[in-house]
Amino acid sequence: MDRRVGGKSHARADANDQMGATVLTTPVDAESGDWIASLRSNDEQAMARLHELLLRAARFEVRRRAAAARHLTGGELDDIAHQSAHDALVAILRKLDDFRGESRFSTWAYKFALLEAAVKMRRRAWHDREIPLEDAGLPALAARGSSPHADAHMSELLAAVREAIASDLTAHQREVLVAVTLNDVPIDVLADRMSTTRGALYKTLHDARRRLRAALAQRGLEVPE
Amino acid sequence: MNERDHLARLRGVLGPSEPELTCEACFDELDRYVELELAGADADAAIPGMRAHLAGCPACREDHDSLRDLLAHEAG
Questions:
Q1: Which of A200, A4, A114, A93 is nearest to B63 (CA)?
Q2: A106-144 pLDDT, tens digit each
Q3: What's the number of domains chain A is made of?
Q4: pTM of the model
Q5: Are residues A51 and A121 in the same domain?
Q6: Given this model, what pLDDT does residue A154 score?
Q7: CATH code, domain with A154
Q8: Which residues in chain A touch residue B30, judged by CB atoms under 8 angstroms apart?
């Protein structure tokens, strides 16, 4: 399977619906091996320890994002952390065979809890908020506010990008690109609103970016890297 | 906005120029990548396309930063 954008990989279906089962190819450290063996045998104590570990990660993520969701009470934030830990636990038990032993088991498990918490917090932060209209982001690509000696090349680049956004993208590509890159709408929030997946939207964004770069190249404009 | 802000905004719009992983592959490799980074190993050589994807995908970049910071926090 091509794992690069534009390849034939499948879009992400939900927060933790990832890749298919993978055969263990790397020697697993003893602690990770114990986790896998205990969880495969439905050891209740191991399940409880895993839940504790996931809750710690989820609370870490919720705390990081609490400032962006000031309307949520402490109790609501803790509910989100608990829900995230629960959802991550379910996802992990479903995907135990995906663990390849290329990291510690705890690191592998943490990422599920962090993802669940991040997605839930972004959704709550954008709950009841309208997605900004596409035009709202375009002024950010104007050179207004630059010094009188502003780089002429930059002004030309910005103007060319604005023009290419208007003329070289499909309506869907334009909507996704402007929302995510200019209006800072989280891609998973946008995916929810558009009833699609984060992976599918990123592919759209990737295709839009390629078109913009091609349009700039056609105009003989180089983008500083 | 100054020139640096414009350039940052432009890079955000245009994304990385080099090949990049998908969001799915990024998530799949995230734990290995972050452990390599924290160990001081060459994570970018081990997982080509990851750095470019993190530069182009704000959500995956946040996921990466969270895992890195959590592990660093736990290591004390």
A1: A114
A2: 999 999 999 999 999 999 999 888 887 666 556 666 655
A3: 2
A4: 0.87
A5: yes
A6: 83
A7: 1.10.10
A8: 111
